Amino acid sequence: MRQRNRVLGWTVMPLFLLACGAFTIYYFVENPGGAMAARLLIYPNVFKLIQQHVLLVVVSSLLAIATALPLGILISRPRFRTLGLVVENVVNVAQTVPSLAVLALAFTFLGWGFNTAVFALWCYSLLPILRNTYAGIRSVSPSILEAARGMGMTPGHILGRIELPLATPIIMGGIRTAVVINVGTATLATFIAGGGLGDLIVTGIGVRRTELILAGAILSAVLAILLDHLLSQAEAEFG
Amino acid sequence: MSFWEFFITRLDRVWALTLEHAWLILVAVAIAIAVGVLVGVLITYSRPAAHGALYFCQVMMTVPSLAMLGLLLPLFGIGFTTGVIALTLYSLLPIVRNTYLGIREINPAVIEAARGMGMRELSILRRIKLPMAFSVIMAGIRTATVMVVGIGAIAYCIGAGGLGEFIFRGISQYNKDLIVIGAVCISLLAILADFLLKRTEKRLSFRS
């Protein structure tokens, strides 16, 4: 039963979502509803926007994982105990800053464009990964660590063989949260000329063309649900 | 002009927009609490319904906020209503999930005892289940509120008003001060809302 659910989760649901996406693209490109929308709703343009969107999310998420994971491990070391507490509190407050504001602030320093958007997404998605890495490692029971030390394991071994494996579910949860936030924030990248599917939505709102709004909204929603589903699947597999 | 001078010349606008933003959040969260707690309570009686409802809320939460506003725009038009509906949909998941979990985690022996004393389902709900799940439900409401204050900034672009105006103006005028004012006001509003809800929770749970 469990095996079957796993196989279904990796095949049926993603295929269904991909089919939804493909149908949306087909439908709106064939029925753009007016000359204005028809100019934007052509296959090359739609695919370019999807590609930009995915690139925004993937690049910023990978960068965030690459920086937040080592940082989280570092601040969970006993030596940096106080630093860990400080970071935890800072993260809690920083989390109340809206994603739109982070994009806007990055824009005032770095100007328009794709790179600024990647930088803002990276900043914003650092926090959940950092917090969960720290919390996950701290949640390992001290008696387990004591036992490992008693068996003569070095700190490096303890980290690699005990702390990280035990913290994996929590760290994966943080990564999933970060990616979902990034997919959502990537739609806002359009406001600072960062590209992505938000272009269609915002242009659509500006020129009042429902077809443009719906095409952008449905595609970015499908993309978000697809990525979230794949990550939850991966979480169940490796967590 | 320094940042503070700039801020002070705009003080009345800051105040007006903060109130507008707070009102948007208040209406959305109030509706979300009414609907969310009701749904959360109802789905404790049926496991398949619970899976369905929680999955639905999870999907709602995954949809990017700009996309959600875009999807609702053709249905409800430009303005406050669309903003409220979008924010309500976002705040449902934490509230529904926490109501459900809060009630599910009550020791079954307590409910059994209440039933044995001849209490009816409604009074069990009112006198035992909801008070015992109260702190978990409140935690959900707080999560929802803090999240929705941030998303409220985006609702400006469909004409729902609020502090998003500062950020969007700041981008189009390349004005850092405006963006900082918007960001700080929104963060402070979120922190304040969280603080007030925490106070309310303490006061109410003391009484029960």
Overall, the morphology of chain B is: elongated
Looking at the structure, the CATH topology of chain B is MetI-like fold
Biggest sheet features of chain A: none
User: How large, in whole angstroms, is the Cα Rg of chain A?
Assistant: 21 Å
Largest sheet of chain B: none
Rg on CA atoms of chain B, Å: 20 Å
Report the CATH architecture of chain B: Orthogonal Bundle
Structural class of chain B: mainly alpha
Shape of chain A: flat
What are the low-pLDDT stretches of chain A, counting only 5+ consecutive residues below 50?
none
- Report the CATH superfamily of chain B: MetI-like
Identify the CATH class of chain B: Mainly Alpha
Order of helices and strands of chain B: HHHHHHHHH
Q: What is the CATH fold-level name of chain A?
A: MetI-like fold
CATH superfamily label of chain A: MetI-like
SS class of chain A: mainly alpha
Oligomer: heterodimer
Count of separate structural domains of chain B:
1
Describe this protein's structure.
The complex is a heterodimer of chains A (239) and B (208). Chain A is flat, with a radius of gyration of 21 Å. The longest helix of chain A is centred in the first third of the chain and has 34 residues, at 43-76. Chain A has helices at 2-30, 35-40, 43-76, 81-94, 99-110, 114-138, 142-150, 155-186, 198-207, 210-238. Chain A is mostly helical. Chain B is mainly alpha-helical and 208 residues long. Chain B has one domain (3-207): MetI-like fold. Chain B contains 9 helices and no strands. In chain B, helix 5 (80-104) packs across helix 7, helix 7 packs antiparallel against helix 9 and helix 8 (164-173) runs antiparallel to helix 9. Chain B is elongated.
SSE arrangement:
The complex is a heterodimer of chains A (239) and B (208).
Chain A: H1 2-30, H2 35-40, H3 43-76, H4 81-94, H5 99-110, H6 114-138, H7 142-150, H8 155-186, H9 198-207, H10 210-238
Chain B: H1 3-9, H2 11-42, H3 47-62, H4 65-76, H5 80-104, H6 108-116, H7 121-151, H8 164-173, H9 176-207
Helix pairs in contact in B: 2-5, 2-7, 3-5, 4-5, 5-7, 6-7, 7-9, 8-9
